[in-house]
């Protein structure tokens, strides 16, 4: 319903809860698989999809990529960035006598915060216990969001329209049909991107992350998911092609160990490199 509600949701949710729900909804309404699925709803000769390219496959992929994404972001948190949380940085601004950068001391946001708090430069927090005690970047929620949504976009047809979208009413007591801007243009891909953004930004609303914790961690998760799809794709007997649109609007195609990122040769080379590193899991952590 609003940022406060969203901040509360991401305070109590399980690791991949939102994307598991999305997957169950898509499976329940007969969400159409990507055109690269070799089975679709049919069989190939006497073969039928099950362990690969059917429900058990996508259900296990979603949980697997969530685990790898979390390990990757924890490596970034502790071994690379160790970025202070907004709450902790505000504590430095309020109590530390060391000279602060002029970009902070002259920022209009200082006066805005003090006007809201009665003079304090400490930041408001949605969580009664305050920020988590691990570093801010990368964001665990955002990295898992980017990874899980990438798997879902690769699996399902992103262009399928979302019919009869619903939103909470103003009181948050029931769902009502959405008739606002873009109501007739919503697609599976667009709603999955929105889901990833909402979960990640919800942690920003709560006051525990910076904006770039959200925006860059989504892409970290996307890379983990893409490398997972590339590596596993070499083991499939069937000929297939996973396709999805990444968070920068580029089309990505994965087929039996090969990858093509349309319009981004640098990113394609990155995936080709990491897709050929057969170190068990280690390369996921250091992205």
Q: Calculate Rg over CA atoms.
A: 21 Å
SSE pattern? HHHHHHHEEHHEEEHH
Instruction: Characterize the biggest β-sheet.
Output: 3 strands, antiparallel
Structural class category = mainly alpha
Low-confidence runs: none
Percent of residues in beta strands: 5-15%
Read across the widest sheet, the strand sequence of neighbours is: 3-4-5
Strand count: 5
Describe the protein in words.
This protein is about 50% helix and about 5% strand. The protein has helices spanning about 5-10, 15-30, 55-80, 85-95, 100-105, 110-115, 140-155, 190-205, 210-235, 265-275, 280-285, and strands spanning about 165-170, 175, 240-245, 250-255, 260. Helix 7 (about 140-155) packs across helix 9. The mean pLDDT is about 90.
Index terms:
287 residues; mainly alpha; three-stranded antiparallel sheet
Write the layout of secondary structure elements.
Elements: H1 3-12, H2 17-28, H3 55-81, H4 86-95, H5 102-105, H6 108-117, H7 140-155, E1 166-168, E2 175-177, H8 188-205, H9 211-233, E3 242-245, E4 251-255, E5 258-261, H10 265-275, H11 282-285
Antiparallel strand pairs: 1-2, 3-4, 4-5
């Amino acid at each position: 319903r609003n940022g406060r509600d969203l901040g509360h949701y991401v305070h109590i949710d399980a690791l991949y809860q939102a994307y598991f729900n999305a997957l169950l909804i898509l499976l329940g309404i007969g969400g159409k698989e990507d055109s690269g699925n070799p089975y679709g709803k049919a069989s190939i000769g006497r073969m039928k999809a099950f362990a690969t390219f059917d429900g058990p496959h996508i259900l296990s992929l979603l949980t697997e990529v969530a685990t790898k994404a979390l390990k990757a972001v924890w490596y970034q948190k502790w071994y690379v960035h160790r970025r202070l949380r907004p709450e902790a940085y505000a504590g430095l601004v309020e109590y530390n006598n060391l000279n602060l950068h002029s970009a902070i001391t002259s920022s209009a946001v200082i006066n805005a915060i003090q006007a809201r708090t009665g003079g304090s430069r400490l930041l408001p927090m949605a969580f009664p216990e305050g920020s988590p005690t691990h570093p801010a970047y990368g964001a665990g929620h955002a990295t898992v969001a980017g990874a899980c949504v990438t798997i879902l976009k690769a699996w399902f047809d992103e262009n399928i329209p979302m019919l009869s979208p619903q939103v909470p009413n103003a009181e948050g007591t029931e769902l009502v049909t959405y008739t606002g801007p873009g109501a007739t243009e919503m697609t599976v891909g667009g709603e999955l991107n929105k889901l990833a953004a909402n979960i990640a930004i919800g942690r920003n609303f709560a006051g525990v992350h910076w904006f770039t914790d959200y925006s860059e961690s989504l892409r970290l998760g996307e890379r983990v998911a893409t490398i997972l799809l590339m590596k596993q794709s070499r083991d499939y007997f069937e000929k297939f092609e996973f396709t999805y649109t990444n968070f920068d609007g580029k089309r990505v195609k994965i087929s039996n160990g090969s990858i093509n990122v349309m319009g981004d040769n640098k990113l394609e080379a990155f995936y080709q490199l990491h897709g050929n590193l057969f170190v068990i899991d280690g390369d996921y952590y250091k992205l």
